[in-house]
């Protein structure tokens, strides 16, 4: 059984399993002491399976005889959880016995360290201060656990074997070490001397981790009845299994030590004559020197063993113990520069050997040798000792996570040369060996005769090595980065007493502050590293944030903190370098801070203003993402996090800058006159203060952005009325917020005046009502449709103050009521006996479909003035931004040709042939002649005008027709179609605009394509390769359609005399068109558009999709889904206006009040519902990727992808006169899976007309401004924010040179 324990080497004969137990019938009633000993061992052997000590393999080494390791179990925490004990090795109340559990090895270790007596013990003629013997350890442990044995097992015993095994377990876990590092198992005697590592100094700090294990014989039984009458039903109860083994008491046999290697001391090899001539002190001196040389050789052998047994073994292992990519890093982390130490000590040993050879048999001087070695050690030992904690942790982590490596370490511990020491013991050797030098040299110095010059060398060497130990302690402090015991270090702990006592009070204060600056920088850099390792890396590697949001979330929350870490890591490295070079008295660190402040300015200028955004995104994710919340809660339990939240860590850079200012100012105050810091520190302070001032504006802007996001998250919309205000746009700003009063719309309201919370963004004005939820979150319920600033006008901001009315019902109900139906007229004051507060009108007008005049009131004139100022600023800025970012620009076709009589002239006006009035413009179409001229035809009430596209003065009337409502151009056939007074005519374009030289068709007679005046509208398009003209005639409630196809041969042949018969008559008729199809629709039709393979008819039923080959049709949107009943009802009551493809398999249906996305089957395709127009659509047009909705007062332009409003063009009596159909324009492409690209055709596809305001109310004529909407392009392509004015100029396309430049959109 003992052989199954890793590293167990008992050296005892196997115990016979047939030995009788004390309770067996065969046991003697009066056993002999030897028999009792056998019985005890047999019982312990049988209980070994339950009580076995599971040693950490990384600590495998020597163990005691008789297999008594079975009293331990390593898993303290599991034991503590089972018995309700909260395991905490760092418990500050451990001196109080109420909180001590002696079944836990860590608690025994703490009490041992507190109680054991430390004295100066001599071994090998060398005195060791603060040391103790093996007997001291066992006696102290026995004293600690004896009472627990009595309580737990109901016995009193002097048996020290349990205490001995506890001591050996502590030795195996390097809680203390033997001063000569002999590797022997601890014995209950005075032969060996032990010390705690930290008691010897030399840069070794107090252990961060205590030994762990469970002493099972000291554990309490979980049975509540245990102890009653000495009986217990529990199978695992220690009372029943072990108590009998200690009754009656036995005498522990003397320990039989393993034979030691015979070693020769210095006197053994010296001639007796020489030896007798030497004084006793010199003999002791030479003995110690000889022992130093011997131990140095043993130390170098141990370092050689580390290389041959461990480093080479790890590198050459097959299969690999460590992943090849991590192998070099692992070896550097665990072994550090231990091979450099070996070279240093080899040179020291060589020098001592040479000195021994030169001065044998009596070495006269040895101090100079160590003085020279100390100078060489300064380059190697501080680095190793300072790195030791990192090496120890890396080794521990690898042993716990890598079973193959753990097995390798166990095998190495059983190697004959390892002396049963494990890898952790070996890598501790350099630190322990460095501690021994001052002790050994002091022993030599003590025996050195007065006047011997070596005494001075020895004193210098001792001081040099102790300074080396001080530097090693400093390196440990720097490397640990405030982890473990070094976190509590202050300046006094690192500076020797003799140095501190020689400083002035002011200089001591100055050194304190410099140390605080360095330590604070270490803590700051450590926190940035925690941010990386505990938070950022898991977020990147785990499925915590959705992949599509991961990069954005990391950029928002962590931003450029990595840059800050790089800058401050460099600053800390420079501070540490100065600290090492100038320790213990640092002259200045100002140069390092000054240089860092110059370099990190840009990084902090970017990070600090972004902090409010990072904090908001973090809180938002915690609130909305359960996976992130779970990860976040787990991260807070990480020991390095110290229960501080993520917000603390991302906020760290901000207070750190302020801390620099405070600490540098304090250093300056404590700096003596004439010191260079008196000039340098103020310069560094100015740079840091300037950085703090420069970030103020950015912080305010970020806070405003976060506030804007909070409003966006807390806006509550009525069902189906949500408006995409683009509040999450990077450039969006919140201009102003505040409360205004509004009278109830109905004139009577029991609750009194309404208090509105008004939000003014840079693109919308939103009226809301505040409501606080049960969770304390303020929600903003949208009270009215948000008002685009382009459609906002200010009214009544100069009216006199009024008195708030309390209403007619106040006296009836006892509360504040009012019955005012609207704002007071003519500034009349409303008096009410109980309420005399003044209110100040500030009415606004919303020009949208659901808008009107909103009568609002401010509670003070200052508030009203502020609102007016903010509104005017926002509207002005919005106008500038829209002008710079417009997606369409107006290009004039005519401003002086088309006139209508004004209201003043209408009563006296009579239409005559020489009248300058043309009537209302109704239609237009661009085209090109055979000789390449770009022309435009414009139809109005008095005929058709044709002129050059960009020359408004070239307009000439070519057709004297009345009531022209529609025109189109079949450019491939040279035919111009006109619908006038419900009659459809076809003209050869040569007859209207002769080319040069004139064509034979210039005299062709026009053709009338219908009979009576009954054509309501017509549409021209291409279907399956055919050019078709479809016109509609109304017959009752039905719509009758005729489909015509142009006949090329007939169009180009010579004119014939008119036929007397036929359905279509003209004065000179030829068959230019043939009838292709006739069909009808049993509902009123408004328009018809050509799709890819079918046609879509807008009618009272909705959108009728028809196939002309078989006249099969279907109506969309589908009306069968009862869940869409409300939407269906609204669609039935609205007028369909247009249908445009928004995606590869999606369409946007445009009604007069809203838009609806449907799939190819006609079902609603988006959960967002409808897109509500700002105005009432009288006509819609499509220029990919934008939909244009024409209201009489403005044109609203929306992106078809999400329906977002991108531009508004204000005007009076605005009408669309050409929507891209009926001309030889480039066919629209089909959008891809990602929708329409933003770099679509720059060809103009839309004409419109609006009333031109000249500001003269007495004018007799109203000018109609005819224009085309031209897509804008970016002159210098590049990313541009939509919320701020661009620095480059944008021009409409006018020449082919811009043909391949993508349209720049908002």
UniProtKB/TrEMBL annotation:
InterPro entries: CNH_dom (IPR001180), DBL_dom_sf (IPR035899), DH_dom (IPR000219), PH-like_dom_sf (IPR011993), PH_5 (IPR041675), PH_domain (IPR001849), Rho-type_GEFs (IPR052233). Residues 733-876 form the PH domain. Residues 1-70, 813-832 are annotated as: Disordered. Residues 17-31 have a biased composition (Pro residues). Residues 918-1224 form the CNH domain. The keyword Phosphoprotein applies. Pfam families: CNH, PH_5, RhoGEF. Residues 284-475, 509-698 form the DH domain. One of its GO terms (molecular function) is guanyl-nucleotide exchange factor activity. PROSITE patterns: CNH, DH_2, PH_DOMAIN. Residues 32-58 have a biased composition (Basic and acidic residues). Keywords: Guanine-nucleotide releasing factor, Phosphoprotein. This is DH domain-containing protein. It comes from Botryobasidium botryosum (strain FD-172 SS1).
């Amino acid at each position: 059984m003992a052989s199954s324990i890793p590293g167990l080497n008992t050296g005892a004969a196997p115990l016979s399993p047939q030995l009788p137990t004390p309770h067996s019938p065969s046991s003697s009633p009066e056993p002999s002491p030897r028999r009792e000993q056998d019985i005890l061992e047999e019982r312990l052997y049988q209980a070994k399976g339950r009580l076995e000590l599971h040693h950490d393999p990384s600590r495998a080494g020597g163990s005691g005889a008789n297999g008594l390791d079975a009293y331990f179990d390593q898993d303290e925490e599991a034991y503590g959880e089972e018995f309700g004990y909260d395991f905490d090795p760092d418990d500050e109340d451990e001196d109080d016995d109420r909180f001590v559990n002696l079944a836990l090895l860590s608690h025994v270790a703490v009490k041992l360290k507190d109680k054991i007596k430390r004295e100066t013990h001599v071994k090998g003629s060398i005195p060791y201060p603060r040391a103790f013997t093996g007997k001291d350890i066992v006696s102290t442990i026995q004293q600690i656990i004896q009472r627990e044995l009595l309580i737990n097992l109901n016995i009193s015993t002097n048996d020290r074997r349990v205490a001995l095994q506890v001591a050996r377990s502590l030795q195996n876990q390097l809680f203390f070490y033997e001063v000569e590092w002999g590797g022997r198992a601890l014995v209950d005697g005075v032969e060996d001397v032990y010390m705690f590592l930290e008691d010897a100094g030399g840069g070794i700090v107090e252990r961060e981790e205590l030994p762990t294990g469970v002493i099972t014989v000291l554990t309490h039984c979980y049975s509540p009845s245990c102890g009653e009458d000495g009986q217990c039903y529990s199978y695992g109860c220690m009372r029943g299994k072990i108590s009998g083994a200690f009754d009656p008491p036995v005498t522990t046999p003397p320990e039989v030590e393993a034979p030691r290697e015979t070693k020769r001391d210095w006197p053994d090899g010296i001639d007796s004559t020489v030896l007798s001539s030497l004084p006793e002190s010199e003999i002791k001196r030479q003995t110690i020197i000889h022992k130093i040389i011997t131990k140095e050789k043993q130390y170098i052998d141990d370092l050689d063993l580390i290389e041959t047994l461990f480093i080479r073994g790890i590198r050459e292992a097959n299969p690999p113990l460590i992943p090849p990519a991590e192998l070099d890093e692992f070896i550097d982390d665990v072994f550090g520069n231990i091979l450099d130490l070996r070279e240093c000590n080899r040179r020291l040993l060589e020098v001592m050997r040479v000195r021994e050879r030169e001065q044998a048999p009596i070495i006269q001087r040895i101090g100079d040798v160590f003085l020279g070695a100390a100078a060489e050690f300064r380059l190697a030992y501080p680095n190793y000792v300072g790195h030791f904690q990192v090496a120890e942790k890396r080794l521990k982590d690898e042993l716990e996570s890598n079973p193959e490596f753990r097995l390798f370490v166990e095998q190495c511990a059983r190697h004959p040369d390892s002396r049963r020491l494990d890898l952790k013991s070996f890598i501790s050797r350099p630190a322990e060996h460095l501690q021994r030098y001052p002790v050994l040299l002091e022993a030599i110095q003590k025996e050195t005769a007065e006047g011997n010059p070596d005494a001075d060398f020895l004193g210098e060497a001792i001081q040099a090595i102790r300074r080396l130990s001080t530097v090693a302690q400093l390196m440990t402090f720097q490397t640990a980065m405030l982890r473990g015991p070094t976190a509590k270090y202050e300046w006094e702990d690192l500076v020797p007493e003799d140095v501190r006592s020689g400083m002035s009070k002011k200089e001591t204060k100055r050194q304190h502050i410099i140390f605080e600056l360095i330590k604070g920088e270490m803590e700051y850099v450590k926190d940035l590293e925690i941010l990386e390792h505990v938070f950022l890396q898991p977020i990147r590697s785990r499925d915590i944030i959705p992949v599509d949001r991961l990069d954005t979330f990391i950029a928002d929350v962590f931003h450029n903190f990595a840059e800050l870490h790089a800058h401050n890591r460099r600053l800390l490295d420079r501070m540490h370098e100065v600290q090492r070079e100038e320790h213990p008295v640092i002259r200045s660190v100002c140069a390092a801070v000054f240089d860092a402040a110059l370099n990190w300015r840009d990084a902090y200028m970017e990070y600090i203003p972004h902090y409010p955004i990072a904090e908001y995104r973090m809180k938002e994710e915690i609130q909305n993402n359960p996976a992130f919340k779970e990860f976040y809660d787990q991260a807070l339990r990480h020991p390095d996090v110290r229960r501080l939240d993520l917000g603390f860590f991302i906020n760290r850079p901000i207070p750190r800058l302020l801390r620099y200012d405070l600490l540098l100012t304090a250093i300056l105050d404590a700096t003596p006159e004439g010191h260079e810091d008196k000039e340098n520190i103020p310069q560094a302070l100015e740079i840091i203060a300037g950085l703090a001032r420069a970030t103020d504006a950015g912080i305010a802007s970020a806070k405003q952005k976060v506030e804007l996001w909070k409003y966006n998250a807390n806006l509550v919309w009525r069902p189906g009325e949500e408006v995409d205000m683009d509040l999450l746009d990077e450039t969006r700003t919140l201009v102003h917020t505040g409360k205004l009063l509004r009278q109830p719309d109905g004139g009577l309201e029991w609750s009194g005046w309404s208090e509105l919370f008004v939000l003014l963004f840079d693109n919308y004005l939103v009226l809301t009502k505040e409501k606080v939820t049960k969770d304390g979150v303020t929600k903003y319920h949208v009270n009215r449709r948000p008002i685009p600033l382009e459609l906002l006008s200010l009214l009544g901001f100069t009216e006199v103050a009024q008195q708030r009315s309390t209403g007619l019902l106040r006296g009836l109900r006892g509360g504040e009521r009012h019955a005012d139906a609207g704002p007071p007229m003519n500034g009349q004051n409303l008096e009410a006996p109980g309420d005399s507060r003044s209110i100040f009108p500030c009415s606004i007008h919303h020009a949208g479909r659901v808008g009107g005049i909103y009568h609002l009131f401010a509670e003070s004139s200052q508030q009203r003035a502020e609102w007016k100022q903010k509104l005017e600023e926002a509207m002005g800025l919005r106008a500038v931004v829209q002008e710079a970012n417009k997606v369409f620009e107006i290009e004039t076709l005519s401003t002086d040709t088309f006139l209508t009589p004004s209201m003043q002239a209408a009563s006296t006006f009579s239409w005559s042939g020489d009248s300058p009035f043309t009537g209302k413009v109704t239609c237009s179409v661009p085209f090109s002649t055979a000789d390449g001229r770009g022309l435009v035809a414009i139809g109005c009430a008095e005929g058709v005008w044709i002129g050059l596209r960009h020359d408004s003065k070239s307009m000439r009337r070519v057709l004297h027709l009345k009531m022209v409502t529609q025109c189109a151009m079949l450019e491939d056939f040279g035919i111009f179609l006109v619908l006038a007074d419900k009659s459809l005519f076809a003209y050869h374009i040569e007859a209207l605009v002769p080319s040069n030289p004139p064509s034979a068709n210039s005299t062709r007679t026009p053709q009338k394509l219908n009979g009576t005046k009954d054509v309501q509208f017509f549409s021209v398009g291409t279907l399956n390769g055919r050019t078709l003209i479809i016109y509609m005639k109304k017959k009752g409630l039905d719509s009758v359609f005729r489909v015509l196809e142009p006949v090329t041969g007939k169009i180009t042949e010579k004119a014939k005399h008119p036929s007397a018969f036929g359905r279509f008559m003209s004065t000179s008729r030829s068959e230019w068109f043939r009838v292709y199809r006739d069909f009808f629709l049993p509902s009123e039709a408004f328009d018809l558009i050509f799709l890819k393979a079918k046609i879509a008819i807008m009618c009272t039923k909705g959108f009728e999709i028809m196939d002309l080959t078989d006249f099969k049709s279907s109506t969309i949107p589908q009306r069968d889904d009862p869940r869409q009943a409300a939407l269906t009802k609204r669609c039935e009551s609205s007028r369909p206006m247009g249908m445009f493809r928004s995606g590869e398999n999606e369409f946007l249906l445009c009604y007069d009040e809203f838009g609806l996305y449907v799939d190819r089957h006609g079902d609603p395709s988006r959960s967002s519902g409808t897109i509500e127009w700002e105005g009432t659509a009288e006509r819609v047009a499509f220029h990919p990727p934008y939909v244009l909705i024409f209201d009489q007062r403005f044109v609203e332009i929306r992106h078809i992808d999400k329906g977002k409003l991108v531009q508004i063009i204000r005007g009076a009596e605005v009408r669309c006169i050409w929507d891209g159909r009926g001309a030889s324009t480039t066919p629209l492409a089909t959008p891809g899976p990602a929708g329409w690209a933003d770099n679509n055709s720059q060809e103009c596809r839309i004409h419109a007309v609006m009333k031109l305001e000249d500001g003269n109310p007495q004018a007799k004529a109203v000018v109609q401004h005819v224009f085309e909407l031209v897509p804008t392009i970016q002159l210098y392509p590049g990313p541009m924010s939509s919320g701020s004015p661009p620095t480059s100029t944008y021009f409409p396309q006018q020449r082919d040179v811009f043909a391949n430049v993508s349209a720049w959109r908002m």
